[in-house]
Design brief:
Layout: H1 16-26, E1 31-35, E2 38-41, H2 42-58, E3 66-70, H3 75-86, E4 90-93, H4 100-110, E5 114-118, H5 122-128, E6 136-140, H6 148-156, E7 171-172, H7 173-182, E8 195-201, E9 209-214, H8 215-227, E10 237-240, H9 247-259, E11 263-266, H10 272-281, E12 286-289, H11 291-299, E13 313-316, H12 323-335, E14 342-347, E15 354-357, E16 370-371, E17 376-380, E18 394-399, E19 406-407, H13 411-417, E20 418-420, E21 426-436, E22 442-447, E23 452-454, E24 457-459, H14 461-469, E25 474-484, E26 488-497, H15 505-518, E27 527-530, H16 544-555
Parallel strand pairs: 1-11, 3-4, 3-5, 4-8, 5-6, 6-7, 10-11, 10-12, 12-13, 13-14, 26-27
Antiparallel strand pairs: 1-2, 8-9, 9-19, 14-15, 15-16, 17-18, 18-21, 20-21, 21-22, 23-24, 25-26
Helix pairs in contact: 1-2, 2-3, 2-7, 4-5, 8-9, 11-12
């Protein structure tokens, strides 16, 4: 193993809330976030989090209980995230656009006793709540975080499309806050090693699992990010467009900024146009995103006057950044006044998010950079602990203070992914392939497990195939990723029909409707192609690589 980071940090030993409260104590009037024309100070953020914590305890929350948050990047998400932590709970962060059965799975798997979402997403919860452990459903609205003029405008536009939530079925945001203001709930002690967050991901084996992350995991990440970005100063603005239910968005764009005195510009719904507008409006110092986001920015017309001279850091993660896209993005930044170039990082949700980043003062083409302080990376022969020499391709292993506690309720999966070596370190077996050079720079080579990455989201073909195969019209299916200049990959399904169906447009439409009911929008197939048979390997498995090669030839 090559030691690539001599820097050692002394890590904060308090909770997530404590880390933010420190900043609030030092700079109570400092701006913590901006949201749709309004701003909130650190004092306001921590005060609202305390109100939320008291309300949650008054509603019966006990230390270690799970609370599901299905919210976009909005002030309520921050108040609740830190309030849950202060109350000793575990925040189960999920995508608000998840389909009903996915939501039911997340609620039941985490055994959440409470759930919180926006009014516009409540109908999906309404139909599945009886099947879950949820005792209390809290509903808020975007307009709850807006100034009066903005509230009026919202009500007359987007708000008109949202159905009213029945008052007798949920606890509304104002009533929830009123409860917290009246309650006198003592706060339980919360330690650094206590579980704080569950993020759902396919993990390293491609099946959905809850990744349990501690207070120390997130707080260590925030210190590592700032240590590798010496240009950061308190008050610097981060455009928080990456979603709060994603490790990258929550760990880097929000928690890192709020525990280091930064300022989050919250973006509840991403569009390339709004992204560009906010960079200029708020003179953002840092932006982060997946390659798809940056590709969309480059395609946007009318940006000749965009001033990006305020940028100190531009970070790409969540998927591999091609050398060509980096060159185009660097040119775009230069043409719009920026003095920095995009820096690629790497990480897994099992280590919160980023654990490796291109140094600010040195770039190697094709490299994802060097490990963070106190983070070790090594390349081993896949499935073993035998370390390979520089230049040899193998599986990427990670170790450090951001390594997860466990997979929720899955001890066997945890044991497969987290392994203790003779060096005394616990290593994450990532399932990713890579190479390390003589200087310790890492080069990502691909994924050992089947996975499609579309717009930064991990999509697992086996899960979609299981869903399709369960339909009576389908005898067999195979799902692959097809190269896409915008999304990087898009999903295509190949289906061998059963005797119950014919290969007609009506059958295709029926299957697509079936998919829409059970699959999140970002994972939907853009096309279903019928085949009389699917190619097989010598052992009788569907040869998905053959289909990938056929598509590549067809598109070339």
């Amino acid at each position: 193993m090559i030691s690539t980071s001599p820097i050692h940090l002394e890590y904060f030993t308090g909770s997530l809330f404590d880390a933010v409260a420190q900043i609030a104590h030092r700079s109570p009037e400092g701006i913590a976030f901006d949201f749709m024309g309004s701003s909130g100070t650190y004092q306001e953020l921590t005060a609202k989090a305390q109100v939320c914590a008291r309300a949650l305890i008054a509603l019966g929350l006990k230390p270690g209980d799970r609370v599901t948050l299905a919210l976009p990047n909005c002030p309520q998400a921050l108040y609740l995230f830190y309030g849950i932590n202060l109350a000793g709970g575990i925040a189960n962060m999920i995508h608000p656009l998840s389909e009903e059965q996915e939501i039911a799975f997340y609620l039941n798997d985490s055994q959440s006793t409470m759930a919180i979402t926006l009014d516009q997403f409540y109908p999906k919860f309404q139909s599945i709540l009886p099947e879950t452990c949820v005792r209390t459903m809290i509903v808020t609205s975007i307009k709850d975080a807006l100034s009066f003029p903005m509230t009026l405008g919202y009500t007359l536009t987007q708000g008109r499309k949202i159905a009213k939530v029945p008052k007798d079925q949920v606890l509304h945001w104002k009533a929830f806050l009123d409860l917290g203001k009246m309650a006198e709930s003592p706060m339980p002690p919360v330690k650094a090693e206590d579980p704080a967050v569950i993020l759902y991901s396919g993990g390293t084996t491609g099946t959905t699992k809850g990744i349990v992350l501690t207070n120390l995991n997130f707080n260590a990440l925030s210190q590592q990010v700032v240590a590798t970005n010496p240009m950061f100063e308190p008050g610097d603005r981060m455009l928080a467009a990456m979603p709060i239910f994603h490790g990258f968005g929550l760990g880097v764009c929000i928690h890192t900024m709020l525990t280091q005195g930064g300022r989050c510009v919250l973006v509840p719904r991403f569009t390339p146009k709004s992204y560009a507008k906010l960079i200029g409006k708020y003179r953002c110092n840092f932006i982060a995103g997946v390659p798809t986001l940056f590709e969309a920015l480059l395609r946007l017309p009318g940006l000749d006057s965009l001033d990006m001279s305020s940028l100190k850091g531009v970070f790409s993660g969540g998927d591999s950044l091609s050398v060509e896209l980096k060159k185009k993005l660097d040119r775009f930044l230069f043409e719009h006044g920026a003095t920095v170039q995009v820096r690629e990082g790497y990480g897994t949700t099992e280590t919160v998010t980023a654990c490796c980043l291109t140094p600010w003062d040195r770039y190697k083409e094709g490299s994802i950079g060097l490990p963070f302080p106190d983070t070790c990376m090594k390349i081993v022969e896949p499935g073993t602990d035998r370390e390979l020499s520089p230049g040899e391709e193998g599986e990427i292993l990670l170790s450090g203070p951001t390594v997860m506690k466990e997979y929720w309720g899955q001890s066997e999966e945890t044991a497969r992914t987290l392994r203790r070596h003779e060096d005394g370190h616990t290593w994450v077996y990532t399932g990713d392939l890579g190479v390390m050079d003589e200087e310790g720079f890492i080069y990502f080579r691909g994924r050992a497990k089947r996975m499609i990455v579309s717009s930064g989201y991990n999509i697992y073909p086996a899960q979609l195939e299981n869903l399709l195969d369960a339909h009576p019209f389908v005898q067999m299916s195979c799902v692959i990723g097809v190269p896409d200049p915008y999304k990087m990959q898009k999903v295509k399904a190949f289906v061998k029909l059963s005797a119950l169906a014919s290969p007609t447009d009506e059958t295709r439409a029926h299957l697509m409707e079936y998919c829409r009911k059970h699959i999140a929008k970002y994972a939907l197939p853009y096309e279903i192609e019928f085949r009389e048979d699917l190619p097989k390997t010598l052992v009788g498995k569907v040869a998905y690589r053959v289909l990938e090669e056929e598509e590549a030839k067809r598109l070339s």
